[in-house]
């Protein structure tokens, strides 16, 4: 998915200007990639509609950085589909009761134990309940995991799930557990018998949370069964497991949209610590495959004077970046924070460039550049040793300091050149390295 989306953006970025038709082309590619990634077609349709409407709006076409604007729109829409922010667990019951449901093999038993461990680390005293009695191995599996994470497991008579959960409620009160996690039985497909049983367990337990566990690897099937479970039960959210595999990510995008219920956790490995809260913004970034570039865009948009940047871009095109521009750049950078930090965020940008002269002593650099003649600033090549001595005297610094500034300037110029060769959307950063 990431690769495909990146390609879609490249299509957009390759063109000199963004037009209605190449936005449409990019949108089409995003649509294809989402469908290929197993995102539900209804979700894709709505998503695309909304992106297209926004992207064709005045703002993007007129913007100085239309491709960034476009990416931002896609990102914002993705986050909207994924849910705006992390949704935690409702643990208000005393004890709080969490019931896990889902198809066989989706990861219920594993997730029950992972969740118990997570809550234990948060200072809770969980009790695990083995309510899947149909496969003897299932109870043993939970006992095994319970031992590993040092959380007690209630198994009862291993026969009657309704009786087991009832007893577990009493057991929890007796042993002052503040959270009970119920692992229930799943089948290979949604069937009435299984639904009936989980419904009855839910009636007895009255859970604060009914989380459906779905396997990201099963694609659209997972989304369809999520819909069925949601129709039958008062689901409070989802756990999407196995996103560490080569799952295509579409499940996460679709499930919330189709059911209206949030994804609360994602399973990222078979191990007991392989469960994470679900952060939509992070996943959106990962789906777009651009690392922190997106947050960088936000940062830049907040603080860069686009007019100035545009002038600078023109200068670069003509290779006319002089010391005055350099000084201006340093001032912009100061506004943004450390340049090192900024370079970290740009994939493929040269690292380990020493801008310390510019960064640490902007004032001194300003003094040095101010002591140059206009001609020297425009054409730094003419600054020979005797000119350097004069500049050093004039600015109250030394020739070494003057050299440092000139070196910084050279490096920035080099870096800009490299960025010039980078894909368009990265190139945009050249105005503000
Ligand atoms: P259940 O039938 O729903 O209880 O599923 P299980 O908990 O027994 O899990 C089925 C298989 O999926 C087991 O081999 C688990 O180790 C594996 N599994 C569960 N969650 C994850 C996950 O997030 N990542 C990976 N890689 N494997 C997982
Ligand atoms: Mg199980």
From TrEMBL:
- Provide the reaction this enzyme catalyses: GTP + H2O = GDP + phosphate + H(+)
Compartmental location:
Cytoplasm
Entry EC number(s): 3.6.5.4
Occurrences of domain SRP54-type proteins GTP-binding (ranges): 262-275
Q: Name one GO molecular function term.
A: 7S RNA binding
InterPro entries hit by this protein? AAA+_ATPase, P-loop_NTPase, Signal_recog_part_SRP54_M_sf, Signal_recog_particl_SRP54_hlx, Signal_recog_particle_SRP54_M, SRP, SRP54, SRP54_GTPase_dom
Q: What job does this protein perform?
A: Involved in targeting and insertion of nascent membrane proteins into the cytoplasmic membrane. Binds to the hydrophobic signal sequence of the ribosome-nascent chain (RNC) as it emerges from the ribosomes. The SRP-RNC complex is then targeted to the cytoplasmic membrane where it interacts with the SRP receptor FtsY.
Under the subunit heading, UniProt states: Part of the signal recognition particle protein translocation system, which is composed of SRP and FtsY.
Q: What is this protein called?
A: Signal recognition particle protein
Naturally occurring in which organism (per UniProt): Kosmotoga olearia (strain ATCC BAA-1733 / DSM 21960 / TBF 19.5.1)
